[in-house]
Amino acid sequence: GQQVMQIPQYQHVQEGEDFTTYCNSSTTLSNIQWYKQRPGGHPVFLIQLVKSGEVKKQKRLTFQFGEAKKNSSLHITATQTTDVGTYFCAGKTSGTYKYIFGTGTRLKVLA
Amino acid sequence: DAMVIQNPRYQVTQFGKPVTLSCSQTLNHNVMYWYQQKSSQAPKLLFHYYDKDFNNEADTPDNFQSRRPNTSFCFLDIRSPGLGDAAMYLCATSRTRGLTDTQYFGPGTRLTVL
């Protein structure tokens, strides 16, 4: 079945450093979403990417969808302590309404 | 505010005692999802409804059932909870509009099985 892997599993950074998480799907995706889950919280939608090679920015966050629509990345510039949490990608294949979540990357930011 | 509501937020049940978790939404979304999330793991899709059409994941145990009596409500029934079913259960909704279908998650119900 479809699998979505993320690396790294954990990342500790000093405040102000950059952070990147990578998402790889075993199958071609129709679109991909990114979520942030704070400790003890529920996933909160960040963004959706649909087009091959698409790049979107939200302030310090940059999201990219690969040309083959099988991988994606989230880059955070100059991390802040408020960025702490687990970042999940979630991919959907065409013809379905379901999303398969990636394994997640847990980010800790040290002040 | 429009939102996804889950009740209760915390549920304690005994091994083998049936339990029902509820989810309601005021977003009028046509798709509703149930996910199971264990500690330090990703949410795992159990099933979803597209309108009244029920879609079960192949690896969802028979012990888990769901009902969606109307657009606003969806229930997760665990017929005979085992210790391994202790987890956070997340409900989510989305409205399909072409390729855009943001999922909105409820706060979750944390299930403890004694």
Please provide a written account of the structure.
- The complex is a heterodimer of chains A (111) and B (114).
- With 111 residues, chain A is mostly beta strands.
- Helix content of chain A is 0%, strand content 54%.
- Chain A has strands spanning 4-7, 10-14, 19-25, 31-37, 44-49, 55-58, 61-65, 71-76, 85-92, 100-101, 105-110.
- In chain A, the strands form 2 sheets. In chain A, strands 2, 4, 5, 9, 10 and 11 form a 6-stranded mixed sheet that branches. In chain A, strands 1-3-8-7-6 form a 5-stranded antiparallel sheet, with no helix packed on it.
- In chain A, a hairpin with a 5-residue loop joins strand 7 (61-65) and strand 8 (71-76).
- With 114 residues, chain B is mainly β.
- Chain B has no helices and 11 strands.
- In chain B, the strands form 2 sheets. In chain B, strands 2, 4, 5, 6, 9, 10 and 11 form a 7-stranded mixed sheet that branches. In chain B, strands 1-3-8-7 form a 4-stranded antiparallel sheet, with no helix packed on it.
- In chain B, a hairpin with a 5-residue loop joins strand 7 (64-67) and strand 8 (73-78).
- Chain B is globular and about 40 Å long.
- The relative contact order of chain B is 0.34.
- At the A-B interface, strand 4, strand 5, strand 9 and strand 10 of A face strand 4, strand 5, strand 9 and strand 10 of B.
What is the number of strand segments of chain A? 11
Return residue spans of chain A where pLDDT drops below 50 for at least 5 consecutive residues: none
Please identify the structural class of chain B as seen in this structure: mainly beta
Structural class of chain A: mainly beta
How far apart are the first and last residues' alpha carbons of chain B, in Å? Answer: 36 Å
* Count of helical regions of chain A: 0
Mean pLDDT across all amino acids of chain A = 95
Question: Helical proportion of chain A?
Answer: under 10%
User: How much helix, percentage-wise, in residues of chain B?
Assistant: under 10%
Strand and helix order of chain B: EEEEEEEEEEE
Cα radius of gyration of chain A in angstroms: 13 Å
Overall, the morphology of chain A is globular
Proportion of strand residues of chain A: over 45%
Strand residue percentage of chain B:
over 45%
Unreliable residue runs of chain B: none
The coarse overall form of chain B would be globular
Q: Using DSSP, what is the number of strands of chain B?
A: 11
Q: What is the arithmetic mean of pLDDT of chain B?
A: 92
Order of helices and strands of chain A: EEEEEEEEEEE
Largest sheet of chain B: 7 strands, mixed
